[in-house]
Amino acid sequence: MDGSAPSFSTNSLESHWMPFSGNRDFKASPRLVTQSSGAYLTDHKGNKLIDGSSGLFCVPLGHGRKEIADAVHAQMMQNDYVSPFQTGQLGSFELAEVIARRLPDPFNHVFFVNSGSEAIDTSLKMVMAYHRARGEAHRVRYVSRERAYHGVNIGGVSLAGMVKNRETFPHVMPNVVTMRHTWTGDDMFVKGQPENGRELADDLQRHCETYGGSTIAACYIEPVAGSTGTLVPPKGYLERVREICDEHGIVLVFDEVITGFGRMGTPFAAHKFGVTPDIMTMAKALTNGAIPMGAVAATDEIYETITNTAPENAIEFFHGYTYSGHPAACAAGLATQKIMDDEGLFEKSAALSEYFLDALWSLKGHELVRDLRGIGLMGAVDVHHDGVPGRRGGNLQKALFWNGCHIKFTGDNAVVAPMFISEHSHIDEIVDCLRKTLDEELEASVKA
Ligand SMILES: Cc1ncc(COP(=O)(O)O)c(C=O)c1O
């Protein structure tokens, strides 16, 4: 590419129905990214922006990694597609082994999918198959949490705890009940895990007492609730959820789509918090965002129960996608995981956390900032709404873009997630841009 801005006609934007976007608003005033490299993006007007959310938390190694592109290209030239049903290609076995090595024991089995949403739906079917294989098909209830985000497929929407993602789609899976979310308002501006709120885990116990623990199939938890604005689990909370699951034979699923692969400074959040679930979903950083891919990891107990109870030579789990373990995605995944090891990026992520959180906390006291939360390389700037929840967040995301920074907002929460390759100067640049944009918004709101 020569770096010059491409020309386009706004009419040419009409055909694409954009996801999670204000289509009319965007098409009237587009924000197109035409190039990405390292920590930076270039927009269609030629402006440079820093990527303050690592894309959507999926590009921690920086954009345009040649090693990944080369690996995908070589794979495409050698073996571009293999049916993953009853045949295979080496890459998926190699990548599964690499992932299994990173996972806590006894996670030794990895099922490939193409996104976080597919990982959630796959995990639900694993849970169903597991209970059926154990003669416990009567476990038909699922527990999730308020403010949860588990993707957008029917399973994920059924588990969702964010109203905008649910209210248009009421006819989803039945029998899902929610626990309260863990942001109590008692501990504000806390770096890391809040002291208060462990008892919120007992909502699960209350569901067991209301419905019967033996009817509950699984409990879904994002160890750190990401999309809703970085809700960090209170101390002791995940441990208590684990205890209750054990007591009632409930499968504990950690949705590690954002937290997996280093965002907490450890391979997975399960390591960070010292709590081991039974199933883990992952996606995002698995391939550094270069090729879509997700995965579901299961313990020996779950894999072996499903596999060994099926008749000899039969398909044990009637599930899979045409693109499960696609060769290009596996090549991207293997190259990504190699870079993570070669460059010590989990350690780098851990080492950067303090600087990042301190920088973010410099926004404390800003009139528009309601709360700050953060752990690892994941933080939220929770902004006071302007009378209409979500409107200010949407406007700030756009204003940040034109001020030179990409940050993902959900409602009025900015979710800041720098790359693991960040220098301190990158983090300063992100926070400076946030401050400038908040100042401008405050000034505009005072004038209005
Ligand atoms: C915790 C969690 N689960 C699932 C998903 C869905 O992933 P995808 O958008 O790849 O379908 C996301 C996406 O942000 C997520 O944050």
Topology:
Elements: H1 23-28, E1 33-37, E2 40-43, E3 48-51, H2 54-57, H3 66-78, H4 90-102, E4 107-113, H5 116-133, E5 141-145, H6 154-159, H7 163-166, E6 176-179, E7 190-191, H8 202-211, E8 216-221, H9 237-248, E9 251-255, H10 269-273, E10 279-282, E11 294-299, H11 300-308, H12 327-342, H13 345-361, E12 369-375, E13 378-383, H14 391-403, E14 405-406, E15 408-410, E16 413-416, H15 424-447
Parallel strand pairs: 3-14, 5-6, 5-8, 7-12, 8-9, 9-10
Antiparallel strand pairs: 1-2, 2-3, 4-11, 10-11, 12-13, 13-16, 15-16
Helix pairs in contact: 3-12, 4-12, 5-11, 8-9, 13-15, 14-15
The structure holds pyridoxal-5'-phosphate.
